[in-house]
Each structure stands twice: as structure tokens, then as C-alpha cells.
């Protein structure tokens, strides 16, 4: 049975009497998975996005999947925790730390120690008074010539359709759409209860952000694409994994065993909802293929990359957070963005990036503008060329380096990933149909964020192509 299609799903002082929690049990039933997912999601929705508890329970938890419909939540604002319970399921708790976000507790690390990790974190600095996209005041209008070519009525209709046709069951499905063309926001719409200041989860779109952080370190000369990946678990004499390169990790062609299916007992579930050290769990997996010979999508691979970034930036949550802020979030204006860490302090790059819809659009603009921000080259052309080059290990040209591509088959035997979107479209994608699509040929970025639950779908090709068709050519 398929339970989840893909998840890829001011510091506060602490006291010695900080609460502790029992060790996380193995997830053996869908109900156990339900409380684990619910604690993680609800904690961030309440403390990071600052949404009402009743709305989170109804729209996020009970709408998520059949195995979360009986979950109840207990929110302790003083302790900054959310505890999820359900009949017959293990009770799970997540802890919020300002700036860091939420971490699902396993019992391996005390809450006092976790608070100490985040004690020196500071919010991302920004300047809201600067013009878009670095700031929000004022948001420029599309140039008159381009505006004249844009089909405003068709664009508005396409955007609203992506909300109206998916709002089923009494809860929001599409929650935010932002469309940028020519550097201007040409369309922006939110579901009730959400706005331009609401941080929204990217799920596996987070992988693309982590890939960019790796790219910055490669540009700095700290990491090298074709050197063996600096993973301690692989350095034993004769270990075949010692030959895995950073390039192969980035392109999902490491050859490591990892089950991405989301059912209790499988690797992704064990990593995201049982392990306090996610990278160690993923790095312990054996090879199933020779490195570089086979493409296999893996959240574990991205979390190995996350730990590489962690170690390269000082080996602390503070160092990793500050690197992301200083090198990516502050220069691009992504001041709301954060990536939640596991108990070791390593940010969960596979799955847990939050940002406002506008900030996700800013991330798309970085790719649209070939790494330039405000006339300065933030990310090198060489890195971006590599990131959007289809990996040879995949049967189809749909994946680069932590980015999805829309290339057509040279022989024409198979369709593009999204047949009605331009071939040069580059995407960050995640569970529940999150997407950040940069379309260079139209000088456009389209962001769709939502909460499409099990049993529902969102036709990426249909809705995004309708929006793209309404834009100026």
C-alpha cells in the first residue's frame, strides 16, 4: 500500500530542567507515521508560519492523508513544542527553536542541548525598503511594452483556476501562486488564511536550495566536484563507496542503496522520522550500483550533501545557518527562508526548507538570471551550466544537479517531463505539488505552493502551461 507519494517528503535561554522525551519508537504502522509527520508539520506551521492551531489541525494534519485524520495536537508555547497523538500510535513531539525552525525529537539529544545548538542564531538580515526583488518596496511594474503583450485576462483566469479547481473537501489545496516576468510580479494570489508573509514548506524543492549551497562552496574552492566526497563512513580501506564523488551525489548517481518509497520500515521513513542523525543513516547504506552508472532519486543523498555543507562551514548549526544567510538568503532577499535541522544540527536539505512564496520566486530568479543578483555574480556560470546539464546516468534528460529539467528526448521517443512547458524550464519540485519553475525563454518564474493530499492531484503541466501561455512571449 502506498502511504505517501513523496515527501522528500532571538535565541531563547534554556534551563537545566528542560523537558526530555522518550526515545523515538520504530515506525511500524501508518498511524505511527501519522503522529511523526504531524508533529513535524504542525510545529513549523504553528511556530514558523505562525498560523492558528485549529487551522493547522484541520487544513494541514487532518487533510494530509488517511492515517492523520485521527491525530490530536498538544501545543506547549512555553516549551515551544508540539506533540501529536492518535489512537494506537506512538506519541511524537517536535521542538521549535527560533531561526532554526522545528526538529522532530528522538530522545537521543536533550532539549537543553538542542537549545544550546541554536542559542547564537540570528534572523536573516534584509532591507524591505529596497526595490523588489531584494526588498519589497516598491514592487516594480512590468515594462509597458511587455505588459501590452501579456494577456491579463487569461493570466488571471489561469491563476484562479489553479485554486478553484483544487479547493475540494473544505481545505485549501493551492495556497500560493506568484508569477514573475521581466523582473516584475505580474500575478500573485493566495488562499484564505495565507498571504505574502506566510512561510510555506517546499518539501523536496528544498533539495535545490541545498544544491545551490553546495555550488557556492564549489565556487569558493572549498569543495571539488570530482574529488571523492568527504564522507567519514566511506574512508575505510577497500570501501568501494570511497570513490563516490560530489558530482555523483549531486546528480543522484552515487549508486547507494536507498528506498525512497514512503511506507513504514523503508529508508525515507526511518531517516526523516526515526533518525536523529539523518546523514549518518543515509551514509551507512551500501552500494547497489557502481558510482555514476545509474540514476536513483534519493532524499538520503541530499542529506549526505547537507552534512558536507555543515562540515565545510564549521561543523555547527550556527555556522551552516550563517553561511546560508550570508551567501544565499541575504543577497537574494530571501529573508524568510530557513532549512530545519535534525538533532545533530545538520539542516535537512532533502525536505524541510520554508520560505514565503515571494522568496521561493526569488530563488527561481537566481536561476533565471544565470546566478546574478543586482548585477553581481552570486553563483558562477560554470556551476549553473553544470546544474542544468542532464545527468548521463538517467535514462531520460529530466534531472541535473538537484534540479529538474524539461529537456526533450533527442530521438523524440519520449515526451518532455511537462509537454506544454518550454524545453528550457528548470524546476525545484516537492511533495504535494510544490514547484518553482524558471523559464528563461519567457524571462519568467512561476511558483505554486500548496497542500494537495493523498487521493488528490494537481496537474502541473495543465496549470503552469496555461499561466505561461498568458505571459508575454
From TrEMBL:
Stretch forming the signal peptide: 1-22
One Pfam family recorded for the sequence: Beta-lactamase
InterPro entries per the UniProt record, alphabetical: Beta-lactam-related (IPR001466), Beta-lactam/transpept-like (IPR012338), Diverse_Enzym_Activities (IPR050789)
Domain Beta-lactamase-related, first and last residues per copy: 176-447
Domain of life: Bacteria
SUPFAM superfamilies found in the cross-reference section: beta-lactamase/transpeptidase-like
Keywords carried by this UniProt record: Signal
Official protein name in the record: Conserved Putative secreted protein
Record organism: Sphingopyxis fribergensis
Amino acid at each position: 500500500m502506498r502511504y505517501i507519494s513523496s515527501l522528500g517528503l532571538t535565541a531563547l535561554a534554556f534551563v537545566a530542567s528542560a523537558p526530555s522525551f522518550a526515545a523515538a519508537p520504530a515506525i511500524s504502522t501508518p498511524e505511527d507515521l501519522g503522529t511523526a509527520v504531524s508533529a513535524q508539520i504542525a510545529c513549523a506551521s504553528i511556530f514558523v508560519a505562525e498560523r492558528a492551531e485549529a487551522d493547522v489541525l484541520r487544513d494541514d494534519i487532518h487533510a494530509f492523508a488517511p492515517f492523520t485524520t485521527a491525530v490530536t495536537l498538544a501545543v506547549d508555547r512555553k516549551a515551544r513544542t508540539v506533540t501529536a497523538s492518535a489512537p494506537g500510535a506512538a506519541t511524537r513531539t517536535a521542538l521549535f527553536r527560533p531561526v532554526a525552525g522545528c526538529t522532530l525529537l528522538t530522545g537521543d539529544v536533550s532539549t537543553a542541548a538542542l537549545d544550546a545548538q541554536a542559542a547564537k542564531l540570528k534572523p536573516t538580515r534584509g532591507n524591505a525598503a529596497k526595490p523588489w526583488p531584494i526588498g519589497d518596496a516598491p514592487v516594480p511594474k512590468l515594462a509597458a511594452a511587455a505588459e501590452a503583450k501579456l494577456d491579463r485576462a487569461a493570466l488571471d483566469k489561469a491563476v484562479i483556476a489553479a485554486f478553484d479547481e483544487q479547493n475540494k473537501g473544505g481545505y485549501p489545496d493551492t495556497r500560493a501562486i506568484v508569477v514573475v516576468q521581466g523582473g516584475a510580479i505580474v500575478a500573485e494570489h493566495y488562499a484564505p488564511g495565507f498571504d505574502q508573509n506566510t512561510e510555506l514548506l517546499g518539501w523536496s524543492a528544498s533539495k535545490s536550495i541545498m544544491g545551490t549551497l553546495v555550488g557556492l562552496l564549489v565556487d569558493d574552492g572549498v569543495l571539488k566536484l570530482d574529488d571523492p566526497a568527504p564522507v567519514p563512513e566511506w574512508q575505510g580501506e577497500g570501501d568501494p563507496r570511497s570513490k563516490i564523488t560530489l558530482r555523483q551525489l549531486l546528480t543522484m548517481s552515487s549508486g547507494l542503496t536507498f528506498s525512497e518509497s514512503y511506507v513504514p520500515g523503508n529508508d525515507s521513513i526511518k531517516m526523516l522520522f526515526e533518525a536523529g542523525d539523518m546523514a549518518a543513516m543515509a551514509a551507512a547504506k551500501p552500494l547497489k550500483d557502481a558510482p555514476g552508472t545509474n540514476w536513483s532519486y534519493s532524499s538520503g543523498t541530499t542529506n549526505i550533501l547537507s552534512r558536507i555543507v555543515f562540515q565545510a562551514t564549521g561543523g555547527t548549526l550556527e555556522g551552516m545557518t550563517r553561511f546560508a544567510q550570508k551567501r544565499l538568503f541575504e543577497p537574494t532577499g530571501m529573508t524568510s527562508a530557513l532549512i530545519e535541522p535534525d538533532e545533530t544540527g545538520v539542516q535537512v536539505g532533502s525536505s524541510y526548507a520554508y520560505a514565503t512564496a515571494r522568496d521561493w520566486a526569488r530563488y527561481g530568479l537566481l536561476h533565471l538570471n544565470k546566478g546574478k543578483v543586482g548585477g553581481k555574480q552570486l553563483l558562477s556560470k560554470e556551476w549553473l551550466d553544470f546544474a542544468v546539464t542532464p545527468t548521463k546516468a538517467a535514462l531520460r534528460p529530466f534531472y541535473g544537479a538537484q534540479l529538474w529539467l524539461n529537456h526533450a528526448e533527442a530521438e523524440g521517443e519520449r515526451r518532455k517531463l511537462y509537454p506544454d512547458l518550454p524545453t528550457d524550464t528548470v524546476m525545484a519540485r516537492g511533495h504535494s505539488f510544490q514547484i518553482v519553475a524558471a523559464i528563461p525563454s519567457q524571462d519568467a518564474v512561476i511558483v505554486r505552493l500548496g497542500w494537495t493530499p493523498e487521493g488528490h492531484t494537481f496537474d502541473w503541466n495543465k496549470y503552469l502551461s496555461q499561466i505561461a501561455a498568458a505571459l508575454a512571449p
